[in-house]
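quick one before i forget lol
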Amino acid sequence: MARQTGLIKLKGTLDNVNFYKSKDGNMARMKTSVDGARIANDPAFVRTRENGQEFGSSAKAGKLVRGALRTLLQVASDGGVTARMTKVMTLIKNFDTQSARGGRTVANGIADPAAKELLKGFNFNNRSAMGSVFFKPFTVDTNTGEISIPGLIPINDLNFPQGATHVSFKSGWAKVDFMDGGSEVQLSPAANLLIDSTLANVNLTPPQAPQGAGTNIFVLCIEFFQEVNGAQYSLKNGAYNVLTIVDVS
């Protein structure tokens, strides 16, 4: 895949090269002469089929996580989150040491503690990553889903966008079953604070544990607002908001 850089941008096929426009700009790539039927049946493409099966499984696992957290993703995500999540799930799939190549899954790989570590710290909004916005240490109780932020001073502990007057913190506890495709999430009440020097002890606790079996995924969401005439408005359609996986068990 290559990027078109000339003054005249082409679209279509020329000399076995496809020219097209994507979100990354004007691109060009070689046209393949291998049809789908041959890839699906020819023994020469067995590795291709195996890779395709595992990629599809990993993409499905990523979609399951995003679906479980859909409510929070509506306020804090970016256009590349699907690709980044699929990439992480592909790495997690590699921890499946019991299945043959082509049949490795996230459902088996996630059992490895090292695989869970790959999910921790995942930012759903790369425009506003946790590490560049929030600097106060916090703890996660994986038994109750509570996230505790003691001694928070918003004006000191946040890199907040210009115009923001308030910040809202919310935690989420999702239970995701990569084996059967089930999921449930419980969200804490939001803690809404004025961005000033007032010290606050923030405790975010979901009302109950999510039901079902599977992997526990804990997230922290930070949303910025501007108050105008007593009403709070989200800034720039959530571009500055944070949503991060803070623990996995």
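fyi The mean pLDDT is 88.
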